[in-house]
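To close the section, here is one more complete example, presented without commentary so you can practise reading it yourself. The ligand is tryptophan.
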Amino acid sequence: MAHRGNFGSKLGIILATAGSAVGLGNVWRFPFMAGHNGGAAFIIIYFGCILLLGIPGMVSEFIIGRHSQANAARAYHHISGGRKLWRMVGYLGILTATIILGFYAVVAGWCLQYLYASLLGHLNGDANYVIDYFRSFSTHPLKPCLWAVAFLLITHTVVSRGVQKGIERASKLLMPLLMVLLVTIVIASCLLPGSQEGIEFLLKPDFSKVSSSVMLEALGQAFFSLSLGTACLCTYASYFKRDTNLLGSAMQIALLDTLIAILAGLMIFPAAFSVGVEPDSGPSLIFITLPNVFQQAFASMPVVGYVVGVLFYALLVFAALTSTISMHEIGTAFFSEELHLSRTKAVWILTIICSLLAIGCSLSVGAVDKIALFGLPLLDFCDYITAQIMLPMGAFFTSLFVGWFVDQQLLHDEFTNNGTVSTRFFRIYQFAVRFVVPVCIALIFLHQFDIL
Ligand code: TRP
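Output:
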């Protein structure tokens, strides 16, 4: 087999994996989900999902990847002791990640375009202007496709440089930058008059809004946000060092991911409430509401408004990029190792597949309304089928696999790095992957299809 890369340092491992986890899911989806589903009440449930299901799920993928030191399909096969069937879970993960990359690149392309537009001051105007701007851009037949492909090509450039020189280096640069931008905007936003109401909207617990579907949303969001269920973490873990503390790393990454999601809420809501805008959901929040909010909130200091706007879209681009890199790497590792291709060729295969899918998704939300499956535009269909079906399925089978089919002594040895790391939590972990994770995911599925 060709020589495989490795992450060079412990910090590199944490930043690259946290880079995968921190993405549009944190900045875009988490804040409005929390805001509308009971604020701190949702955050508590979300945190419960992270602890109970997310961290065991992460550790499982880490174990499979690091033990096998191979791409996802081969990793599942190898750790099962050569049973072919388990390869399918690896294939499922690779397919899921490739589809996610296809539609994620479209939204990431919008962010890139908005960064460009905010730099040139093109987003200045009243609320109707911003609405029209988004509509005419997102339904344009060519422009959003080009921005999505541009985003994929940037991802391509990083991934083609390899694990240490590409992925790790980019993460070490982008993640600290992202944190600085985030904290800067949070401070600016929370200093605005009337920001208190926004902080309350996010952080005040309202348990009356918590229903079973809110719990499901929290769980789905937890999986998506941690990049679970698509063998993404498994692929990254195949580049981990042998002495990496898997549980410790999973906890640090999950904590960082959650912290960034909450900070994203503290960036968006105080500014929105200070100008009396009810933050609504979906793409409109970051592409329609916010450009206007920043302008109005900092109307007395237009330069600050301009800078905050630019920084915000830069932040989104950085967050999205470290995530698209991780999705790209899953398929790249697979193609290069399984088809014995050079990394350069493998990277191109994936970029081309995802570009085609991204163009289809991009056209489906405006320019060509015939690109639909089961009545949904291709973009929404891809989002639905991956987040609601394929991703939980991947996590479900991975958990069953690790809990019941992998040699438990091997699992113990990997969990504890052959006894050099505390064994205290092994039993809890084992119980979680055997029972808690699969049962919870099964319940969600049954509920989703109205069987329960
Ligand atoms: N976790 C990222 C986010 O929050 C998205 C992401 C990156 C992802 N890699 C993934 C989601 C793999 C599922 C699977 O935006």
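Once you have examined the tokens, check your reading against these statements. The mean pLDDT is 92. The CA atoms of residues 119 and 307 lie 9 Å apart.
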